[in-house]
Amino acid sequence: MFSKxxxxxxxxxxxxxxxxxxxxxxxxxxxxxxxxxxxxxxxxLGSCPLYSIFGLSTCPLKKS
Length: 64
Known about the structure:
The chain is an all-alpha fold. The protein has helices spanning 8-26, 37-45, 49-54. The protein starts with 7 loop residues before the first helix and ends in a 10-residue tail after the last helix. This is Inner membrane protein YgaP-like transmembrane domain-containing protein.
């Protein structure tokens, strides 16, 4: 369904940053912090639409 283009450190960073922003939103630090849903979802799915558009990938190369 989605091509995997988010890997390793990038994936972990997206999940952590997204979760922290969502926690901030729940604690009342600002409605804008709900933007954390985007990095959280892209990290969990391992796919970033913007990476696809620009032809980027942080996944390790597959050995053939």
